[in-house]
Design a protein that fits this description.
heterodimer; A: alpha+beta; Beta-Lactamase; Helix Hairpins; 50% helix; B: alpha/beta; 4 helices; globular
């Protein structure tokens, strides 16, 4: 496995070390770029120096060759001319010739020498040592071949033998000016340095561009090499995002890999928990199919596992629930305390707690029951929680308890009256028939009231249990009206209320449950008489449309209902908060039952009322024709 | 299509009135049911007694809700399914995805 230094290249290559020293730390990706850049620069400098040396050497040789060649040509021409002057024995002409030749350029020394005697003629008159041809001797050195010598300072010396008829062998000596190629070579070298410096700056610029373009790729390469060397830690593999888009993408890949790895670890944790009970048989899927929530937490209340229902109940995201600390969630503190108690053993190995507010159910509240138990034989302290939504059960319990309380009250009132009047009738015996008749009437009335209360309660109980049903059959409205008149006319008369039944001339036979519809009408008419003061009016109007739909309007001149209460009066046990009805007995079940019956027949009950303006309840029961039309 | 909601204790009954026969109706029904899933933790029943027909969009919305509930172990309760719908469910083989009840009361009692 590579060390950190290999990843960051803080030691670097020897070349980079020599240049930058150990103080500079190159980030991953700089190594390749820096090394490549240095290689480019080194190559460039080497090429420039080599080129410079070769060029100068070549230029020097070319210049020397050219100078020698020119000197030889000049020497040849000058020798032939000098031979003519010498043969003519015109010494002055010879000296002018040499002077002209020297002044023509590139000739430093030009003279005719008598070998072993002296100088006959020269461009520089001071060098002349022989004044006339007469001074020449026959003992002159014999003539030899032309010699060309390259002097150290770059001058060329040519000794050209002259052949004369009378003067013996003479030598024309030419010495050229120093080779001027040195200045040219210097210029070339200077130009090479300028090109080198320019190239260096160009390389630096290219390096920067190169770095921005390839730095990312290089960094990724280094990271891959580290990965190949066994490095798996994401923080050690990430690269600087300043190196470009490739580096950023590489980091994204690493981060996604890390997320997948984390998810895989989470899955392994989950599976390891379930493995103990046989994950191979699909326990995880089975747990997710449960309507009860299941959760496993450790001693610090970190979630180790939660099935789908648990996440749903507690509002957790399923993909991030593992590792979540329950202390940081919105779970009711009461539940947290209970879980902690079981987890620590302070509250025993098992516990139950219910959280939620029954009063908030209408606003969407929920009651959850947590059953908590320690997991035995676990390596560390773990607890398993079973979570159930018991909202509907609690509401049902509440409703049943309320029904029982109300039933007790409703049954006790008429029973008390019956008991009192029975005792009074017994005391009166056969002596006072008036008292006995009154007592019997009251007993009869209270018994019927008791019967209705029990009937209503039974019906409400059936509604609660979902078993309230109708037994449909022929419904003769005229017979039902006769019964209603017989039942309620005496009560209306007792309160001096005018009870009118408004009936059409002909009433059809409907399909429906006679007892249930009668029960609904009993409740509507009974309420109208109950809440209408003495001297008032109650009207019961029957209407039938062409498809036999029955519409019964029960209107009164009673105390009326606040419109804000109208939607609530059909709820079970609901009684309006009105001090005018404090003394009026009622179970609060009649209207709820009447509407349920109407709806079971496919109809409904509506109310239109205002305080002190009376009320109108409208019961609608669809006829057979309407029902058939709807079904079609 | 109108959609009614009614509370039966802690259970909400959602009742579409009319056929679910276009994309808009299906989306509205799906939205209302999805809201109920969140608000009631799945304590709701679809009363299909007034749904006389359902098209593919509507069917898809029912399956989506069923899957959403199923992911947390809750069944999708439907009641009052007419014969036409029952046939549609059978032909499209989605019937096993729903927990069907005869009427609202039975469906509501299943929460006890």
């Amino acid at each position: 496995m590579p060390s950190e230094s290999e990843n960051t290249l803080s030691t670097g290559t020897p070349l980079i070390q020599r240049i930058f020293g150990n103080r500079i730390g190159l980030a991953r990706g700089e190594k390749f770029v820096a090394a490549t850049g240095m290689a480019f620069v080194s190559t460039l400098i080497f090429a420039l120096v080599t080129l410079s040396v070769l060029t100068t050497r070549s230029a020097d040789e070319m210049k020397t060759d050219l100078l020698t060649s020119n000197a030889i040509q000049l020497s040849t021409v000058l020798a032939s001319q000098a031979e003519i002057r010498i043969n003519e024995r015109d010494l002055s002409a010879l000296r002018r010739l040499l002077l002209d030749a020297a002044s023509a350029g590139n000739i430093e020394q030009c003279s005719v020498i008598v070998p072993g005697v002296g100088v006959l003629a020269s461009a520089d008159s001071k060098e002349t040592t022989i004044d006339t041809f007469d001074d020449l001797t026959a003992a002159a050195a014999p003539a030899s071949a032309r010699t060309v010598d390259l002097l150290e300072d770059g001058r060329v010396e040519i000794n050209e033998p002259l052949r004369t008829a009378e003067s013996g062998t003479l030598v024309l000596k030419l010495v050229t000016v120093p080779n001027q190629a040195a200045g040219f070579v210097g210029s070339i070298r200077l130009a090479s340095v300028a090109v080198g410096v320019t190239g260096l700056f160009a390389m630096l610029w290219i390096y920067r561009r190169f770095r921005s373009k390839l730095g990312g790729i290089s960094a990724v390469r280094d990271s891959l090499i580290a990965f190949g060397g066994g490095e798996r830690r994401t923080p050690c593999l990430v690269v600087s995002e300043s190196l470009g888009v490739e580096a950023a993408i590489w980091n994204t890949i690493l981060n996604e890999r890390e997320a997948v790895r984390q998810e895989s670890m989470n899955n392994e944790i989950r599976e390891s928990i379930l493995m103990q009970t046989g994950d191979g048989i699909g326990v995880a899927d089975a747990c997710n199919a449960l309507t009860q929530g299941i959760m496993v937490v450790d001693g610090d209340l970190h979630v180790l596992y939660a099935n789908g229902a648990a996440c749903s109940f507690l509002g957790f995201a399923r993909d991030s629930v593992v590792g979540l600390n329950l202390h940081t969630t919105s779970i009711d503190p009461v539940a947290i305390e209970a879980i902690e108690g079981v987890a620590s053993g302070a509250a025993g190995a098992r516990g139950n707690v219910e959280v939620g507010d029954l009063g908030k159910i209408q606003d969407g509240g929920t009651i959850l029951r947590f059953s908590i138990a320690q997991v035995p034989d676990a390596e560390d302290t773990r607890s398993i929680l079973m979570i159930q939504d018991i909202t509907q059960q609690r509401l049902s319990d509440e409703s049943r308890n309320s029904l029982m309380a109300q039933a007790t009250h409703e049954l006790r009132t008429p029973l008390t009256n019956i008991k009192l009047y029975v005792e009074e009738a017994i005391e009166a015996g056969s002596d006072d028939e008036a008292i006995r008749d009154t007592a019997l009437n009251v007993i009869n009335k209270e018994a019927r009231r008791l019967e209705r209360v029990i009937s209503d309660m039974m019906s409400v109980s059936e509604i609660e249990a979902g078993s309230l049903s109708i037994r449909s059959g022929d419904l003769r409205i005229d017979q039902m009206v006769d019964d209603l008149v017989a039942d309620y006319q005496p009560q209306a008369k007792e309160k001096s209320i005018a009870l009118d039944f408004d009936l059409p001339p002909k009433m059809p036979v409907l399909q429906g449950d006679r007892d249930r519809i009668g029960q609904a009408l009993h409740n509507l008419i009974g309420n109208a008489i109950k809440y209408t003061p003495e001297g008032g009016k109650v009207r019961v109007g029957f209407e039938f449309d062409e498809d036999d739909t029955m519409r019964v309007e029960v209107s009164d001149t009673g105390i009326g209902i606040d419109p804000a209460e109208c939607s609530k009066i059909f709820e079970k046990f609901y009684r309006a908060d009105d001090r005018r009805i404090v003394d009026v007995t009622g179970s609060g079940l009649g209207l709820a039952l009447a509407r349920e019956i109407a709806r079971l027949h496919g109809g409904d009950i509506t109310v239109d009322s205002a305080i002190d303006q009376g009320s109108t309840f409208t019961l609608t029961i669809p006829g057979t024709a309407a029902t058939q039309k709807k079904a079609a | 299509m109108r959609i009614e909601q009614k509370r039966h204790g802690a259970v909400t009954v959602i009742r579409p009135l009319g056929p679910v026969s276009n994309k808009g109706d299906a989306a509205r029904l799906a939205n209302e049911m999805s809201e109920l899933v969140k608000q009631t933790l799945g304590r709701f029943v679809l009363d299909a007694s007034e749904i006389t027909f359902i098209d593919s969009y509507g069917l898809e919305s029912l399956v989506d809700i069923s899957n959403e509930l199923g992911s947390s172990g809750k069944p999708f309760r439907i009641c009052g399914v007419c014969e036409t719908l029952r046939e549609v469910f059978a032909i499209t083989e989605v019937a096993p995805k729903f927990q069907q009840y005869e009427d609202v009361q039975t469906a509501v009692r299943s929460f006890l």
